[in-house]
Structures are given as C-alpha cells and as structure tokens.
Amino acid sequence: MRRAAGVLLGMGMMLALGAAHGAVVGKEVEYDANGIRLVGFLAWDEASSEARPGVLVVHEWWGLNDYARSRARQLAELGYTALAVDMYGGGKQAEHPDQAGAFAGHLAERPDEVRARFTAALELLRMQESMDPERIAAIGYCFGGGVVLDMARSGVDIDGVVSFHGSLASSLEARPGEVKAKVAVFHGADDPFVPQDDVDNFHAEMEAAGVDYEFVAYPGVIHGFTNPEADRFGKEFDLPLAYDAGADADSWRQMQEFFREIFHK
Q1: Number of folded domains in the chain?
Q2: Which end of the chain is less enclosed by CB atoms within 10 A, N or C?
Q3: Domain residue limits at 242
C-alpha cells in the first residue's frame, strides 16, 4: 500500500508538472559509446510540429541529476528539443565531491572518450523527429562547461556552445580555422576554482585562434551560481559554492539571445 500511494503521488506530480509546463514532455533515453551504456534525458514540446533547434545539456561533476534534467525541460519550454547527456555512463551520479572528482578526473585523462560520448549524444539528438538537425548547440555547467568548450576547441560541427561556471583550462588548444562553434562563457569573477591566470590564458587562446566568442564575468559571484542547490552543497561539503539569482537570471537571458543569434530565430 505504501508503494502504491507513492506511485499515485508520483503520477499526480507528473500530471501537475505537465499542466504547468504545457505540452513539454521528458523521457529517459538509452544510447552507447564505445560499448558504454549511457542514459540521457530528452525533453521537447509534443504539441509543436515545427522542426526546432536542438540543445545538448552537459551536467556538473555530480553527474546527470535533476538539475541537468530541469535545464533540459526549461529549454524545451523555450521551444528547443533538449537532451541532457550522460557523460559518466549508466546514469551514475556522485554522492560526495571525492567521488565526483574521481568521475570527472577519469574522463579528463581520456579526451577521446569524452568526445565519443558527446558525439554519441549529438547523433542521438540529430535523430529526433522534433528537431532540425542543422541547428544544434550545447550548454554545460561546471565540469560540463569545460566539456562543451573542449568540444568547440576540437572542432565539433555545431552552431554554438555556452559554458556556465565551467573550467577554462584545458589540455586541448583552439587553433585558427578549426573552431566551428560560436562560444559564450558566463563566469563568476570570484570563482576560486578558476584562477585569473586561467581567465587570461583563455582570452589569449580564443583571440589567437580567431574564435567568435563572448565572455561575461559577474563581480562577487563564485562557483555554481546557476544552481539553487549550490548553497546547500557548499555548506554540506565545505566548498566555495553559492547560488546567485541575479547572475543566474542574467546568464540565462543572455544565453537565449545568443541562441537567437546563432539560430537566426
């Protein structure tokens, strides 16, 4: 009886969300890269028959959690088909920063695997009937911000990438003529995880490679500023994380302007 009640409550919550979000629906989707099972989350507006741009969402170092799914839903509400990708495999999530660091560090040492998993998600997104396969962007948070920037550096053929409080340093380097995506970076100017040298080197790298990019730094803002759970994580694990409603809202607004530009909407 307890389980049945929980199921009914869950169904009620899903119906309420459906009413609040109109025709936006979401579902888990399985795919693979190099034999690794990946479990993503796809969101779209099923009431629209128009082919629309697609957006990949790359999660924070915690893994593909409810926060990444919520961003995919928000993008679907804006008229995009969004796929929150699974970079760790099996949909696994970290419960502690040490575990998150191990997951992210494992991939940091394997850039070819990162690209393979990103590309597998990209191909899955392109196959969706609800989207225009010629108009695709990617956004990422924290670890995911670094991933989408590296995908741009490596020449992945998409329209644009957006990094929110992402890492800027990389073992890859943008080279003239090789970066196809336009780049937008939203950064907390006081983020202790991203030293000023990384910021300066990133600007120098982008300019030397002739990348079409924009960089917005928010004074007084630190890491995790888009995630309302950042304050809790910061206190629980004694990490310099904090949500900033103003920076969150402004970066999301500017992301939408960036998309209108690259997708010519």
Answers
A1: 1
A2: N
A3: 27-263
